Amino acid sequence: KTWQQYSESIQANKEKFLKFYEDFQPKAAEVEFLKQFAAKKGLNVVAIGEDWCPDVVRGIPCIAKACAAAGLELRIFERDQHPDLTNDFLWRHKFMSIPVIVFYDKDFNELGHFTERPASAYKFTSDLREKLIKDGTKEEELMAAMRPMRDAAQAEWMDATLTEIREQILYRVL
User: Fold this and answer.
1) What is the pTM of this model?
2) CA angle, corner 109, sides to 106 and 111, nearest 5?
3) Reduced to 3 states, what is the DSSP secondary structure of residue 98?
4) CB distance 169 to 33 below 8 Å
5) Tell me, what DSSP letter sits at residue 165?
């Protein structure tokens, strides 16, 4: 599906998806990099996700907006409807983590892929969890206690996603 088709078919979290897409402005340097990379190597982008997943709710609008700004096509596949595709990108060779954003050259040779969230988001969540536990938050209360702080970090994580894609995936194949 294109972003337009996908956004029309969203069943869960539609408001959040559309708000993330509307509000996110990819940095000009990231958009320019994608344009230049595509001009050199060709670039096809595929995203895999499900609309119930918070990382997908943030991640797919992020890459969709960046692709639109760079003039790139993006195709989105629902994870549960495409296990053959999903199984090629298992995180740690066993987890069906999403979103997965896959980059292909003009001949559809895989260049690399990004899974779930940027490293800074993992660190933030881990550090926050540790602090809350140290401060006495009970295990069953952690998710609710973390939610406002995680919500406040979403825009930063969207920027970090594009930076990580550039630095960890696309720079390696230039």
Assistant:
1) 0.92
2) 95
3) coil
4) no
5) I
